[in-house]
Specification:
The complex is a heterotrimer of chains A (258), B (295) and C (499). In chain A, helix 4 (119-132) packs across helix 6 (152-164) and helix 6 runs parallel beside helix 7 (182-195). Helices cover 36% and strands 27% of the residues of chain A. Chain A is built from 10 helices and 10 strands. Chain B is flat, with a radius of gyration of 24 Å. Chain B has 295 residues and is mainly α. Helix content of chain B is 78%, strand content 1%. The model of chain B has no long low-confidence stretch (mean pLDDT 89). The longest helix of chain B has 42 residues, at 2-43. In chain B, helix 5 (108-122) packs across helix 7 (151-175), helix 7 (151-175) packs antiparallel against helix 10 (205-221) and helix 10 (205-221) runs antiparallel to helix 13. Chain C is of the alpha/beta class and 499 residues long. Chain C contains 17 helices and 16 strands. Chain C has helices spanning 4-38, 73-80, 106-112, 117-123, 186-193, 233-241, 263-267, 280-311, 316-330, 333-347, 354-378, 382-390, 395-406, 408-424, 427-430, 450-459, 464-498; strands at residues 39-46, 58-63, 70-72, 98-102, 125-127, 142-147, 156-158, 160-162, 164-169, 183-184, 211-212, 227-232, 247-249, 251-259, 270-271, 276-277. A 5-stranded mixed sheet of chain C has the order 5-4-6-2-7. Classes of the chains: A alpha/beta (258), B mainly alpha (295), C alpha/beta (499).
């Protein structure tokens, strides 16, 4: 592993939806400026686990969490306001969902939540975010067009730009390309590789090739006989894919990969 | 042979029934048509005696004088004022209740709120009038002076009456805002209020506007409640705490004894009312059609 | 600069407060009307003051089940003079009146009332022994004058007699600046008694010095401007008889408290256009109105809904029909009233009657029935329908035997909503139903509904307590209707969920 600082530290995390135990005893550490992939069969809880990082599970009734997640040493459940957390930890969803407003306002939405910017400042921020999301050239002449008038791939990059505009430390991605065509997918994947220099990225994906292409570390989840998700193996992507330590990992990889 | 006859009977019943059902469905549109025709029919003779200009723009309503005057301008303004007051009071309360219901829905309190709104909607207008007369009028008198019976009292009572109308339709609009949009906003760290004010309400705006227009229509058309608290003075009300008469009050008050031109003038007032409300309702239909097309 | 978290908290509090205002308003309205409906407080003004204790040397009793608890001197005098034949004007009961006086008390009573013994003897029934009237306990219109301390049968209760008046010089009640005072409330009377008033302007009266005159010099009040005296009614009358002019009385505000809506009121028939009696005839008429309306609007509305769900094709025509329904739903009630007046009362010559009212109401509730029935019909399981058709049933047979029964709960709730609407409607019925308080004999009879009754009580100036008692009944009815609709719809939903 490179000598990077530990950004997230997850200890003995357990999560319940009401009476149903969804995640069991998860322990892992995420380094800054890395790309981590969560893989596993459907229903194993990887999306749920992803949402723990920005406390989006709080929106669901009856969710209970035990154990700790620390961001830079601070417990995000006990010692951090969820809204401040989400400023530092952004999210891109599976289905692109730009707001029903102009492209400019979509990107400006995030920063405006926190303070008032002058027009010039705002333009700068929007341009920077759209550039980072590799969308600037395509939309710079039509910033006032409605965000929903873009193609699927462009919309997803818009959502990414939206997230980047608030300058988070972390970007969570929940199957960001599963609703896109191969070309848009490829563009997003190359973006991920570029972005990791400035951000830390955690991506949930059911696409094994994607995971092996873009991530530095991979976490493999399974679901046990009680329908509870648990972490099977976590390590460098190369090792997980080519020299897995756990037989279950090997079975899963070879089954999907072959 | 018997089977054939039975089948023929069944087929005849089928087409006969279809005709009857079609007729039933047409009754509504026929009724609307008849209403417009009859009311206009009784209203138009007014124009023989009164010019349109005098009718709409004069504030002198004195049908029993010689020569009689039939100007409804003061009533138009009074209807407008009363509705305006009602909307100003009702919109913040309704929107708040709507937001509460859709955003804090799981609460026990939300259930109570919902029931309260339904009950408020079911209270007959005469009861609102009675309550207004015995409770609101003295209240207004004590706080603002004057008689108490006033356009202000009428506006207050109307505000309470149109709360359910606005809330019900707005709630539908708010709940139709996609959860994905809301999640995106929250994921960016927006506070609850920021999400509500910057995403949810703008997205539901056309539904909210429809509901307000519907509430407006209800307020303009209300008769018994305003009659009992508005004072019913057939003169131009200078201030909201003055007694006034709305278009609806004019019709119900004079109708009992009006004859000839006086009576047709009242029907003319009714026609005006009907026209305004039909236009408002058509607007609402248009707004919802446009919304459906957008989707 | 307010921090956004604080702004959020403030806005959320504002939203919660305004939302709860709604609940508060409901509680306020219901609570107020229930209170007023059950507990009446009638404010009238009368000539005699509210005396605490009167010093009579005889006792006055009234029948136990009559509502007379106190009498004033003037009424008692009228009773003695035989001018009161029926208790209707004093209470709401339509019973004839009888005055009984114990033989030994006749002269005392006569002089108390400033009447001659002969007058009393000719108009009242003389008693030797009060125990004699035990036979007549059913009728209620009796007043008894007996010896002080006499033992009276349990059928009678003591009555308080008030005989004080506030006599003033007529300069006090003259018109000044377009106003005049004719009555005072309890507090103002107190102030007068306590010598706190030096000028009548303090009591919203004219600018005159208030001069107190003791009762034995009551004649002086006639000559001194602004003077007043607290005297017995009999003194006032005697002064008048002696020819003292410029003597007047200031009335006092008198509050009568009691139970308003009683079971008796509900089940008694209305008499004399609602001035007396109860409201059972009005309730019955309302029920007739509802039944007739549902008979007319029910089939029409359900039929229209069936057409829209099962037969209508997507197109301009259907859109047209739907717009018609929406427009009909938006027409204000008074326009329906006007239309009903021209179309049913005049044109079809049904006059003011149940049928005119029902036809008008049918049009009003039609959109409600159509919309709720449509919802109910749409939610019927498609498989049930295909199953029936597969067995060879025609469309109409399927509708009749399968679809309608399954959607009956939803349709029923729409009907019940319409009942609520009918019961609560006023403006549309004023012009069509009529106003009679008698039981309707047939569908062409004029009648009034409960809502109309409340409206007419207020606009005709009848005691507002009657309005409140009818309103309470109406509210209870509407609440029951509302709750039943909810229960039916909930049961309907649970049924769907189970499937």
């Amino acid at each position: 592993m490179k000598d990077n600082k530990i950004l997230f530290e997850v200890e003995n995390l357990n999560l319940w939806y009401g009476a149903s135990h969804a995640l069991k005893d998860v322990n892992l550490k995420i380094e800054s400026n890395s790309v981590t992939a969560f893989i596993g069969p459907s229903g194993c809880g990887k999306s749920t686990f992803l949402r723990v990082f920005n406390r989006m599970n709080d929106l669901i009734e009856g969710v209970k969490i035990e154990g700790s997640i620390k961001l830079n040493g601070v417990d995000i459940n006990k010692d951090l306001n969820p809204m401040d957390l989400r400023k530092q930890v952004g999210m891109v969803f599976q289905k692109p969902n730009p707001f029903p407003m102009s492209i400019f306002n979509n990107v400006a939405y995030g920063p405006r939540l926190y303070k008032k910017y002058s027009k010039a400042e705002m333009i700068e921020i929007v341009e920077k975010a759209l550039t980072q999301a590799a969308l600037w050239d395509e939309v710079k002449d039509r910033l006032d067009r409605n965000g929903m008038s873009l193609s699927g791939g462009q919309q997803q990059r818009l959502c990414l730009a939206r997230t980047l505009a608030v300058n988070p430390e972390v970007i969570l991605m929940d199957e960001p390309t599963s609703a896109l065509d191969p070309i848009s997918t490829a563009r997003i994947e190359s973006l991920i590789t570029t972005l990791k220099e400035s951000y830390t990225i955690i991506i949930v994906t059911h696409n094994m090739q994607q995971a092996s292409r873009v991530s530095d570390t991979t976490a493999f989840f399974l679901i046990d006989e009680n329908r509870t998700g648990f972490l099977v193996e976590y390590g460098q992507t190369n090792e997980i894919f080519f020299k897995p330590r756990d037989k279950r990992t090997e079975d899963y990889i070879s089954g999907k990969f072959g | 042979m018997a089977t054939l006859r039975k089948n023929n009977l069944r087929k005849a019943t089928e087409s006969g029934s279809r005709a009857i059902l079609l007729l039933s469905a047409m009754i509504s549109i026929i009724a609307v048509f008849l209403i417009i025709v009859f009311i206009l029919g009784q209203a138009l003779p007014t124009l023989k005696q009164v010019s349109l200009k005098e009718f709409f723009f004069s504030t002198t309503w004195y049908p029993t004088q010689d020569p009689p005057h039939y100007g409804v301008a003061s009533f138009i303004i009074a209807s407008f004022e009363v509705t305006l007051i009602a909307l100003i009071l009702a919109i913040p309360v309704s929107l708040s209740a709507t937001i509460y219901l859709s955003q804090f829905a799981k609460n026990k309190l939300a259930q109570i709120l919902r029931t309260s709104i339904e009950l408020l909607a079911g209270i007959p207008s005469i009861i609102y009038g009675l309550f207004g007369l015995s409770a609101i009028v003295p209240f207004v008198r004590n706080i603002f002076g004057g008689n108490g019976m006033s356009l202000l009292s009428a506006g207050i009572i109307l505000a309470i009456m149109i709360l359910p109308t606005i809330i019900n339709l707005s709630e539908v609009a708010l709940s139709n805002v996609s959860q994905d949009l809301i999640n995106s906003s929250i994921a960016m760290g927006a506070t609850k209020w920021q999400t509500i004010s910057r995403i949810i309400i703008p997205a539901a705006m056309s539904g909210i506007v429809s509901s307000i227009v519907l509430g407006l229509g209800r307020a303009i058309g209300e008769t018994t409640a305003v009659l009992l608290v508005g004072g019913n003075a057939p003169v131009f009300a200078k201030r909201p705490i003055d007694m006034g008469r709305t278009l609806t009050m004019n019709i119900i008050t004079d109708m009992a004894y009006a004859t000839d031109t006086h009576r047709s003038a009242l029907f003319m007032t009714g026609a005006l009312l009907l026209l305004v409300i039909l236009i408002l309702n058509l607007c609402v239909v248009q707004i919802s059609k446009r919304k459906r097309l957008e989707k | 600069m307010i921090n956004r978290n604080t702004a959020n908290d403030i806005w959320i509090i504002v939203i919660k407060l305004l939302s709860f205002l709604t609940i508060f308003l409901l509680a306020l309205i219901l609570g107020y009307l229930i209170f007023k409906g059950l507990y009446s407080s009638k404010q009238t003004s009368r000539t005699v003051l509210n005396t605490i204790e009167s010093n009579l040397d005889f006792e006055v009793y009234s029948s136990k089940n009559s509502s007379i608890k106190e009498l004033d001197w003037f009424t008692l005098q009228k009773m003695g003079m035989g001018e009161i034949k029926n208790l209707r004007l004093l209470t709401k009961e339509n019973v004839s009146f009888e005055l009984y006086i114990e033989e030994s008390q006749i002269s005392k009573f006569a002089s108390y009332l400033n009447l001659s013994e002969a007058q009393l003897r000719s108009h009242s029934i003389k008693l030797v022994n009060p125990q004699e009237i035990t036979n007549y306990q059913k009728e209620s219109g009796k007043i008894l004058i007996t010896k002080k301390g006499e033992k009276i049968p349990n059928l009678f209760k003591k009555v308080k007699v008030s005989d004080d008046v506030l006599v003033v010089n007529n300069s006090v009640i003259q018109t000044f600046d377009n106003k005049r005072i004719t009555k005072l409330d309890e507090k103002q009377i107190e102030k007068l008694r306590n010598n706190e008033i030096s000028n009548w302007s303090q009591l919203n009266g004219p600018d005159l010095n208030a001069l107190y005159i003791p009762e034995n010099q009551i004649y002086e009040v006639g000559s001194i401007e602004g003077s007043y005296s607290f005297a017995k009614a009999i003194s006032f009358e005697k002064a008048g008889n002696l020819g003292i002019t410029n003597l007047e009385t200031l009335k006092v505000v008198h509050i009568i408290k009691g139970i308003n809506l009683t079971l008796k009121y509900i089940i008694s028939p209305a008499e004399e256009s609602g001035k007396f009696g109860g409201i059972i005839t009005i309730i019955a008429n309302t029920i007739f109105l509802v039944i007739l309306t549902i008979i007319i609007a029910g089939p029409l509305g359900i039929g229209a809904a069936i057409f829209l769900v099962e037969y209508a094709k997507k197109g301009k025509w259907t859109q047209f029909i739907r717009t018609g329904i929406d427009l009909l739903a938006g027409v204000p009630s008074i326009i329906f009233g006007l239309f009903g007046l021209i179309a049913f009362v005049n044109f079809l010559d049904f006059s003011f009657s149940l049928i005119s009212g029902s036809l008008t109401m049918s049009l009003m509730v039609l959109p409600t029935i159509i919309k709720t029935s449509e919802e109910a019909l749409k939610s019927v399981d498609k498989e049930l329908i295909s199953g029936s058709r597969a067995l060879g049933a025609t469309k109409i047979e399927t509708i009749w035997k399968v679809v309608l029964p399954s959607s009956s709960k939803g349709i029923l709730s729409g009907i019940i909503l319409s009942i609520g609407r009918t019961v609560g409607e006023t403006a549309a019925l004023i012009f069509t139903l009529g106003s009679s308080t008698d039981l309707a004999k047939n569908i062409f009879s004029s009648s009034r509904s409960l809502s109309m009754h409340i409206y007419l009580i207020i606009t005709e100036g009848l005691p507002i307590n009657d309005a409140f008692s009818s309103a309470l009944l109406l509210i209870v009815l509407v609440l029951i209707i509302n709750i039943s609709t909810r229960k039916i719809m909930e049961k309907g939903q649970k049924k769907n969920e189970r499937q």
